[in-house]
Amino acid sequence: MLQNLFGNASEVDVQRLHKELEALLVDGEQLVRAFRILRDLFVFTDKRLILIDKQGMTGKKAEYHSIPYKSISHFSVETAGTFDADAELKIYISSSTTPIQREFKRGTDIIGVQKALAQGILR
After folding, report:
1. Which tens digits make up the pLDDT trace of 62-112?
2. 52, 46, 35, 16: which is closest to 117 by C-alpha?
3. Which of 48, 61, 64, 78 is deepest in the core (most CB within 10 A)?
4. What pTM, to 2 d.p., does this model score?
5. Beta bridge partners of 104
């Protein structure tokens, strides 16, 4: 519970998430990987990155932020170390100098996250 309060992410089964996000997806778009930070979602599809920010006490209100992979200028991954138990992902959007940052708890496949992002960007 404490890790979630500090913003750490855990992986979500995309098969279970598909029904919830079906209305957002374009024809033929596939979910690749997804991560939850408290109520928020960080979703990789084969075409874009979708950030879902659940708002309010109930979380019924949500903001959907869609980032086409072509808008991502670069990204960095910092793996967990001996004294730093969290891995970190930074994504830089071409129109902004401030990166989107997310922390991932130890045990999350951060290399897999990096690979999913690289596959989206390099297609």
Report:
1. 899 899 999 999 999 888 776 667 788 899 999 899 998 887 777 777 788
2. 46
3. 48
4. 0.77
5. 9, 87
Q: What are phi and psi of 98, to 5 degrees?
A: -95, 125
- Above 80 in pLDDT, residue 3? no
CA distance 33 to 42: 8
Comparing 8 with 43, the larger pLDDT belongs to 43
- Nearest 5 degrees, angle CA 111-CA 63-CA 55? 100
User: Which carries the bigger pLDDT value, residue 96 or residue 56?
Assistant: 96
Token pair for 116? 């999913």
Q: Which CATH superfamily is domain 2-122 in?
A: Bacterial Pleckstrin homology domain (2.30.29.50)
